[in-house]
Amino acid sequence: MTRAEYFAAKYPPVSADPQQGYWLDFRVSAGFAHIVGGVHSGDECPNCEKPLLRFLSLDTKDERLFLRNIPVPHLPLLFCWTCEIAQNDFVYRVEQGGTVKLIDYGLGPPAGDFPYEDYPDQFPEHRVDLQAIPERDQDIIRAVMRAMTTSETRGIRSAASHSYGSRCAMI
Ligand SMILES: [Zn+2]
Description:
single chain, alpha+beta, 2 domains, binds zinc ion
């Protein structure tokens, strides 16, 4: 059994596979409550013993994201940069009240100054809108994402770091 097969059997995914990607627009908040930064409620990073970093919290009512069947009002996208939590499957469940419960994660000691000295535990909370990425730009982003799998191009990861779209799977 491959890792992907194991993962799919253990955590049957609710697939959101939007073909349209979106840039985060910080200029104005629209009718949906998409939020960058801030804090989530629930489990902390077990390696660093601090809150997981919330990059984005998506308003599941926004039909552009195909998240309407998810029974929570917000889907937080969480990570921890300062340890190896994502060196294994990084899986969490968002419970009815919005609390996050970790299911699977990598173990490892916290890093010293990664990704840089005094990396914050959270970023300021800010409402954002989603702006559709033009098809031509999406093609460029997809090419960059494919290229990221080669060691020669790891330095360009940040080029596609602030968008939502492409492929994701949620449980
Ligand atoms: Zn951590």
